Amino acid sequence: MVGRERFSTLLLEEQELIVEDFLAEYRDQQQSNGWLKICTKNVYFDPEILQQPVLRFPFTKLENLRVVESSITFDCEMVTCLRENGVEHNYLTMRCDWKHEVLPRFRSPREVCKLCERLKNISTSERDALIQDLVDNHERNTTFDVTVMRSLTVEELVLEDKVRRISPLSEILGTLRITNVNLYFMLLHGGLRPVDIYPLSRVVGWRRLEYGIHEPSIEITVSDLNCEDNETEHLSLMLVFSEERHCLVAELLFGNHCESTRGLDLESCENAWAAGAMSNYEYLLRLNYFSGRSFCDLSQYPVFPWVLSDYSSDILDLSDPGSYRELSKSVGALSQRRLELVHERYNEMPEPRFLWGTHFSSAAAVIYYLVRAIPAAMLKLQGGRFDEPNRLFNSVLGTWMSVTTSTSDVKELIPEFFALTESELPVESGARANGWYHPGDFLCNLQSLDLGMRQDGERVENVHLPPWAHNSAEHFIRMNRAALESEQVSQSLHEWIDLVFGFRSRSADAHTLYFTDVKENQTFDSLIQFGKTPKRLFNNPHPRRSVDAAALSLVSMSSKGNQLKPKAQGFLKCVAESGKSEKMFSLYRSPEQGNVGMKCNLECKDGVLLSSYAGKDSVISLYNSQSFKRIRATKSYHSVHEIAPPIALLSSSSFVFTDEGSRLIAF
To answer: What single string gives the DSSP state of each residue in 292-330?
Structure first.
């Protein structure tokens, strides 16, 4: 595979920066074309042929640098190989006793050699200052390429700034240029696509964020048409500005083009959720959004709760309250014995005191879950090696046991454990790192990663799932989502919201006081390692969801006059694929009472389920397909779960009901 650059800033060492990069030819036993990157700690060569590894030459091992005609030669006894065959693996360091030769393209060999000598000989005391001076000098001498602008005669410059574009565990330096028509982002260090162009007409949202230690940043949301299915997706650009005033100018500009919260404020979302017009999943995503969490920033990744507690049964009974986790308690408080031990330690601790040294959401926790989807992030965090096999995410039950018993593990879940379709996760999601999404794929070792062998002799491959998942990662995700949208969770989710986004966060009494809540003079590294509590959204107890509204939460709706249209196309797709006959799904407004109603006819293998909703008078009936005799009817929404969890209608590819017990069986 030729013409692909697989280098990313995830390959850089901690606090390493790119100083120069350019096309070059590398010669050892063979000849290769590619990119040479001069960085502050190493020299990297990224060959254009994917089967060949990225080579890393540390300055501490470089010897005998000299210019020979138009080439640079050097000795380096230790060379590290990265991403061989385009696959992530533990970094391989090998000994080399041969001469290395590099032929720079469009660069003076003497200038390149001089730069490498300077970086190699920097003393420890002057290193940081001199390196920053080199980087700043390169930034000053790099001007924006105006030839890439789409209309030089029409476009007027509004703002130009050197910014950092944030992606998980990496930062890309570049020049941001905003005109009255387009937004341009030019990479400071080239690459195969040096400039990204976004028309301002496609900017659909923006928000002010706090990145690292109070650095001025904005996340811009841009609409992008997916050519494969003609659906509009949204891409987020998280940009850190060099100065606060530039950030303010950008805010003013984007504020004139679109709403800062994409049309919905916190109160509107809360009301929509309480009324049943927004699912639990979407509401949690919105709360994460309003609290400053971002899929671009692993240290502030969206957080979701563990909702189940049964990961060992052959059959998961979603009508049994015992199958669910207590959402009124933080993860750390789920074990009384552990809680007592932690409070004993807390009472003996000097100020500032905290209960938990770890956090329910951190970059390390996110990477733990997503190691099979974004392995490069773990290699970056672990210094070029995957974590010890016994510490990798290997079993859902094992992880649940850890977070409910260990004093050093209280992590919650991430949205990927509940997302049913690609449209429910943004492009920046870790589970979509490969450019596509299928429920549960992040639990499978699809890249054939060598994650090592555990102490019991078992190789780490796919994550072990609960028995009720029947070895299907997709089924596991669908059942997890079924639990999240269940009445049991709907009626207690507000208590978990109080603990994470509300008035019970950062509280010793509520057992939610974490190390980073009390630590002063925090560093960016501490946020990466220990996590950060979301911004508080509610100072009073969050209201409970209306029981009467729960039936309407199955489908997100938008109202136009007296017509209601479903947004959840995945629901309609599942309805269309279930059974053998044509199905009908409609939403309507009752003309007599003015209430929102829902009617769903599903002709299944053995019968028809007729469901209607009209405020408090909810009627769910089962009819036999042969005699059309009503088998069972109820006016209690709770009884819906006795028939079947409503989400089963969304998630199951097929389902039937039998006369015996009048039960709908989803599979």
So the answer is: T--TT-GGG---B---B---S-SS--TT-GGGB--TTS-
Nearest of 363, 295, 361 to residue 371 by alpha carbon: 363
Quote the tokens at residue 497.
């919201």
pLDDT, tens digit, 9 for 90 and up, residues 84-122: 888 899 999 999 888 999 999 988 999 999 999 988 887
Closest to 208 measured CA to CA, from 255, 242, 163 = 255
Q: With b meaning 16 or more CB within 10 Å and e meaning fewer, what string describes 264-301?
A: eebeebbebbbebbbbbbbbbbbbbbbbbbbbbbbbbb
Residue 265, classed as helix, strand or coil, is coil
Place of tokens 């017509």: 563
At a CB cut-off of 8 Å and minimum separation 6, what does 276 contact? 545, 546, 548, 549, 550, 551, 552, 553
Residue 383, classified by CB atoms within 10 Å of its CB into exposed (0-12), middle (13-18) or buried (19+), is: exposed
Radius of gyration, alpha carbons of the chain: 28
pTM beyond cutoff 0.70: yes
Dig out the tokens for 419 from the structure: 């997302």
Q: What are 398-438's pLDDT values in tens digits?
A: 999 999 999 999 999 999 999 999 889 998 999 998 878 89
Neighbours of 394 (CB within 10 A): 18
Helix (H, G, I), strand (E, B) or coil at 282: helix
Give the residue-averaged pLDDT of 309-324. Answer: 95
Q: Check: CB of residue 173 under 8 Å from CB of residue 188.
A: yes
Say if CB 589 and CB 595 are below 8 A apart. yes
CB 211 within 8 A of CB 166: yes
Q: Does 229 have pLDDT greater than 70?
A: no
Backbone angles phi, psi at 333, to 5 degrees: -95, 5
452: its two tokens: 């090592």
Residues 6 or more apart whose Cβ sits within 8 Å of residue 596: 552, 557, 564, 587, 589, 590, 613
Distance (Å, whole) CA 647 – CA 631: 22
Cα–Cα distance measured from residue 5 to residue 86, given in angstroms and rounded to the nearest whole number: 10
Q: What is the DSSP letter of 602?
A: E
CA distance 158 to 246: 10
Q: Catalogue the long-range contacts made by 321-328 (C-beta closer than 8 Å, 24 or more residues apart).
A: 321/488, 323/483, 324/483, 324/486, 324/488, 324/489, 326/492, 327/489, 327/492, 327/493, 327/495, 327/496, 328/492, 328/495, 328/496
The strand pairing partners of 564, in sequence order, are: 559
Could you please report the per-residue DSSP string of 436-449?
A: ---TTGGGS-TT--
Residue 177's contacts (CB-CB under 8 Å, 6 or more residues apart) are 144, 157, 159, 160, 183, 184, 186
Which three-class secondary structure string do you get for 365-417? Answer: HHHHHHCCCCHHHHHHHCCCCCCCHHHCCCEHHHHHHHHCCCCCCCCCECHHH
Helix (H, G, I), strand (E, B) or coil at 419: coil
Q: For 60, phi and psi rounded to 5 degrees? A: -65, -15
Q: How confident is the model at residue 172 (pLDDT cuts 50, 70, 90)?
A: confident
Provide the 10 A C-beta neighbour count for residue 385.
12
Q: How many CB atoms lie within 10 A of CB 412?
A: 18
